[in-house]
Structures are given as C-alpha cells and as structure tokens.
Design a protein that fits this description.
This protein is an alpha/beta fold. The chain has eleven helices and six strands. Strand 5, helix 5 and strand 6 form a beta-alpha-beta unit. The longest helix has 14 residues. It is elongated, with a radius of gyration of 18 Å. This is DNA-binding NarL/FixJ family response regulator. Keywords: DNA-binding, Phosphoprotein, Transcription, Transcription regulation.
Length: 219
Amino acid sequence: MTRKTLIVDDHKLFLEGLRYVLSQIPNVEIVGEASNGDTAVEVAQNTHADWVLMDINMPHCDGVKATAQLKKINPTIKVIAVTMHDDYSNIQQMIRAGVDGYVLKNTGSSELANAFETIEKGQFYSSPAILDTLLRRKTATTAPARSAYHLNPIELLTSREKEVLPLLVEGLTSAEIAERLFVSESTVVSHRKNILHKLNLKNTSALVKYALENGLVQP
C-alpha cells in the first residue's frame, strides 16, 4: 500500500533533502509540502495524506499544535516528528499531541523506513537518541502523584508484567521478549493483554506513550 506522505518544514534545503531520503524508501509517495503548521493541516486534508513528517519549531503554527489538530480531524493519520531537537520538553509536547514516532533530522533512509514499518505495526517509533533522552529523565519528575485514595497504575502490575513493560517500550516482539525472559510467546502475549487492560490502554503504541509520559520505565 502506498504511503501518501506530506512533508512539513520551514527550511527549503531540508525539504529537498527529505524528498531525496523518501525517494529511497519503497511505497512512499510525497503528496504535498508545507512550511508551517497551518498550511500543513490544510494540505493534509486536501491531499488526503495518511502520513506526515512534521518539523516542530515553525512560524505561525508549530508542529505540536499542527499535530494535535491533524489528530483531532483524522485520528488515523500517522505523524512522525522530524527535528534537530532531542530535549525532553519538545519530545513530551509532541507525544501529548499524539505523534506516532520521533526521529532526528540526521536520520537516514534505512531508519526512516524502519520508523514507517514500526508504526504500521501499531508501535511507537523513537530514534535511539530520543529514547535515551526519555529513559534518562528522572522518574521522580514524571511519575504520577500518589494519593491515599488513588492507586498508582504501576502497582496494578505483577512483577513479571513490570519486566515485560520496558521490553515492549523498546519495541521488542513477543517472540523476542519470550526468548529474553525464558517464557513462551503465548505467555508474553497474555502479559501484554493484561498490562493494556490494567492501564486501560488500547494498543502497544498507546502503552509506549503512556509509559514514557508517566515515568513507568526506569532509566
């Protein structure tokens, strides 16, 4: 299936480079370009794009606002943040806006192709540098506040489920997790279902975002 892709950045030189990188990836069709968030939302609707490669810092309407608007209009659209910035604040804002993946601007065609494939499987994709930034963030600054009346969601998980959770965040398959933990693949699938149920999440992509946002993954 062709990935109808919109590329968004306020630097023409980078857009040219991104066009070249995308030309190396099978089944990608560039259907439009935009230099700011407002235009991106309009072009995405007009071209029926199902993928957007989104810069963050742009004039008029930045990538965070544009991503939130696109997801509100079309929840199925896939947005990959493409940026030079790997600071925690930017990453968190894009995750809250609903971004499906996050790569740096020095990303090559092989990694970007991997990002497409990972997201198509329903998983959140992150460049190694981005994931490192998130996992190094102190849990104390991101963990949900405890309450005498509300149980911390992580306390709902069994010890084995807590072992499975970070491996899911890393993007490992059920087979790979089973091999690492010396259990059956069906057991891992069961743990994954239980984790999603306990945390009231729909899929692994939502689980990754939730874990990163709430400090459920230890550095």
